[in-house]
Amino acid sequence: MSSIEDDAPGSILSESSAFNSACGSDSVKAHSTKIREECKTEVPQRENLQWEFSGLTIWVELEEFGNDLTKAIQDMAEIHGTEVIPQGHMTAIYGMDHLGVEEAKKRLRSVPNKIRAWPKFKKPVGVVQDVAVAGNPGQVCSIAWAQLTLSSDPAHEEAMDLLYDIFYGPSSEKKASRDRPWTPHYSIGYDNPEGTPMTLGATLGVISKLPTLTTCERHAKALSLWSTEGKMGDWECLDRINFF
Predict the structure, then answer these.
(1) Could you give the CA distance from residue 123 to residue 175 in angstroms, rounded to a whole number?
(2) Where are the alpha helices (DSSP H) in 67-129?
(3) I need a labelling partner for 39 at 20 to 30 A (CA). Which of 5, 14, 30, 94 fits?
(4) Which residues, listed in sequence order, are joined to residue 227 by a DSSP beta bridge?
């Protein structure tokens, strides 16, 4: 399978610059916004997300227009009193437990040899706000969330296959069993499911005030490697390669 190239606005940065010393320097945690004027009363703070995640994870990070994705994440946390997602992302591979950190970093830095740029994403095709409770049919974790739903195409599926080849090997059983097609989605809010104040109406309200969220196509600006072991507050960015 040949290397993937796309019309990204620039080339992959050199390995020396592929990882920001502050890997999350442009993360949501570094972004500060004011609570919207209509939120006149203090919002009760929710307990931080309690679900225990696992392993090493690869995220796709998207370009932003006026920090729109970052603002959506921050605004969702502010109006609901929930924990802020540490970095906006779409999950490409979750919960790897067969690699050590250094080997995972090495493989991430080899990605540009096969994937010069991640295929561009079209405009979102939907908005979801939902609740899952582990043990319920088809539900494997306990979380409330809100997301922008995007779509995959043959170029994305090829990129995913190449990424799985890099991190698992061409003959990996896990590669063969990955969900197909990929269902890319950009989460803008997480909460515990019990008594969550998160609603579809509030989610649509945040999105409606940031129109570029639903009207713009986007390039992937980076792939990042995260330790997602433990609760969300424990997550740590380990490395990143920038596409532009």
Answers:
(1) 27
(2) 68-80, 101-110
(3) 30
(4) 56, 236
